[in-house]
TrEMBL record, chain A:
Pfam families: Fer4_13
Protein name (Swiss-Prot/TrEMBL): Ferredoxin
N-terminal signal peptide: none
Keywords for this protein: 3Fe-4S, Electron transport, Iron, Iron-sulfur, Metal-binding, Transport
Domain (4Fe-4S ferredoxin-type): residue spans on this chain: 1-29
Tree of life domain: Bacteria
Cofactor(s) annotated in UniProt: [3Fe-4S] cluster
Lineage of the organism: Bacteria, Bacillati, Actinomycetota, Actinomycetes, Kitasatosporales
Role this protein plays: Ferredoxins are iron-sulfur proteins that transfer electrons in a wide variety of metabolic reactions.
From TrEMBL, chain B:
CDD domains referenced in this protein's UniProt entry, alphabetically: Cyp158A-like (cd11031)
Lineage: Bacteria, Bacillati, Actinomycetota, Actinomycetes, Kitasatosporales
Protein's UniProt name: Cytochrome P450
Residue span of region Disordered: 1-20, 73-96
Entry's family note: Belongs to the cytochrome P450 family.
Keywords: Heme, Iron, Metal-binding, Monooxygenase, Oxidoreductase
Record's keyword annotation contains Metal-binding: yes
Stored InterPro entries: Cyt_P450 (IPR001128), Cyt_P450_B (IPR002397), Cyt_P450_CS (IPR017972), Cyt_P450_sf (IPR036396)
Organism annotation: Streptomyces lanatus
Length: 66, 405
């Protein structure tokens, strides 16, 4: 699994950090998403998918082929 | 209902926890409908998930403001004050680059990590309020005892306002939003008092900063040389109070009522408290009594479902109707406490989605954690049919949530 985030779309809602804190974080200076782990381990996959599905800005995409 | 009857908002439903029967029909047969608002103005009403989400997330459009002269008003002239008619005296940028700048300056205070750091304080506040409720005896109104005070206490902490002034904030917040209990004049008087209080509070905070939101924004803006003005700080404080108090207070009441209305839900949470996180989002999705939606004022033509909506149209996006859309949610009319993912639209979507959603989620999770732990025998003291909606138009809620334990 490969995770991508689009910081220009991000609205800083922080949902991803609440759901998958091992994979996502927010920048202190503006609350915008940062990626802690672009290739999360298997046990993080479910939470990562949930974070992508509920992101209010659709700023998280997941590529399963990479 | 006949096809040619004009729909009037709010739509009727059997009880305050049930969705209006019209939603299902509108989603399947008339997803772009014409409705009449309580003001008598007409608007376009969207009920399907995809349509509501796309319009809410469209960066071109925002809520109507006083400048949008042709926009449909919610309440009749004079009632409801700034929050209802868009004539807010606030200096908050609401669109484009300036909105983005404001949002990022304030939004950084509302990161998930910071909200998690506030959590222990929220737990102590909630426990203290529950202790008071128990001390005063049963039956009790959970909304008055816990739902209403908790979020305003948390907002006061975030703004750095002393505990002694919390009750004044409660009153102002109520006056800003309760369109039926207060006249336009009373709302304006409340606003003047609030503005005077906050101006003094901002001045003190400039000389004696703490670690609250106002202090943080002041400190950072000095560094960047392009920070928020006092008017913008005042607008921010009022925005937080208006957006974060009554909404969360009502949601606490409705969430507990929904979980107790079918007590197997409450028992499932008692048996497995790890479900609290998904249960909170499911309560947010399932809430049929959210208010009638968010308005968007079209400043150019838009096509929705093959229908052309001309520039100048006011659109009401019904998030609660969209949240019951079977095209997106399996078993949409069942409250599934473990539902995941749960991409509900209760906090909106896109660049204007709720700034305080991590705060709201944390408050709701804390409320449930504390109630499950301290009052496991909690139950409704009235039948679901006896629950009553709050008077007022902007924020849907229950007037009281009578409970025993």
């Amino acid at each position: 699994m490969k995770v991508h985030v689009d910081q220009d779309r991000c609205c800083g809602a922080g949902q991803c950090v609440l759901i998958a804190p091992e994979v996502f974080d927010q920048r202190d200076e503006d609350g915008i998403v940062t990626l802690l782990d672009p290739s999360p381990a298997a046990q993080e996959h479910a939470a990562t998918r949930e974070a992508a599905a509920v992101c209010p800005a659709a700023a998280i995409t997941i590529d399963d082929d990479e | 209902m006949r096809e040619n009857d004009l729909l009037r908002l709010p739509l009727p439903s059997d009880n305050p926890l049930e969705p209006p029967a019209d939603w299902e029909r509108l989603r399947s047969r008339c997803p772009v409908a014409t409705v009449e608002l309580p003001s008598g103005d007409k608007a376009t009403y969207l009920t399907r998930y995809d349509h509501v989400k796309a319009l809410l997330a469209d960066p071109r459009f925002v809520r109507p403001t006083a400048e949008d002269a042709g926009a449909a008003r919610i309440a009749p002239e004079g009632a409801g004050g700034p929050a209802a008619d868009g004539s807010s005296p606030l200096a908050l940028p609401d669109r484009g680059e300036p909105h983005l700048r404001w949002r990022r300056q304030v939004g950084k205070y509302f990161t998930a990590k910071r909200m998690t750091a506030l959590r222990p304080g929220m737990v102590r506040t909630a426990e203290g309020l529950v202790d008071d409720v128990v001390r005063q005896g049963q039956p009790a109104d959970l909304k008055a005892g816990l739902g209403f005070p908790l979020p305003v206490y948390v907002i006061c902490d975030i703004l750095g306002v002393p505990a002694a002034d919390r009750d004044r904030f409660s009153h102002w917040s109520d006056a800003f939003l309760n369109v039926s209990r207060y006249t336009g004049e009373q709302t304006r008087a409340a606003y003047d008092e609030f503005a005077e209080y906050m101006a003094a509070h901002i001045a003190v905070t400039r000389t004696e900063p703490g670690d609250d939101l106002i202090s943080m924004v002041i400190k950072e803006s000095e560094g960047e040389g392009q920070g928020l003005t006092d008017d913008e700080l005042l607008g921010t404080a009022m925005g937080l109070l208006v957006a974060g108090h009554e909404t969360t207070a009502n949601m606490i009441g409705k969430m507990v009522a929904m979980l107790l209305a079918d007590r197997t839900r409450w028992e499932r949470l008692l048996a497995d408290p790890t479900l609290v996180r998904t249960a909170v989002d499911e309560a947010l999705r399932f809430d049929a009594n959210l208010g009638f939606g968010i308005r968007r004022y079209l400043t150019e033509d838009v096509e929705v479902d093959g229908e052309l909506l001309p520039s100048g149209t006011t659109v009401v996006c019904s998030m609660p109707a969209a949240n019951r859309d079977e095209r997106v949610f399996d078993d949409a009319d069942d409250m599934l406490l473990s539902r995941s993912p749960n991409p509900h639209l209760t906090f909106g979507s896109g660049p204007h989605s709720c700034l305080g959603q991590s705060l709201a989620r944390t408050e709701l999770q804390v409320t449930l954690d504390v109630l499950l732990r301290k009052l496991p025998t909690l139950r409704l003291d009235v039948g679901v049919d006896e629950l009553r909606r709050v008077e007022g138009l902007l924020v849907g809620g229950l007037s009281t949530v009578p409970v025993r334990w």
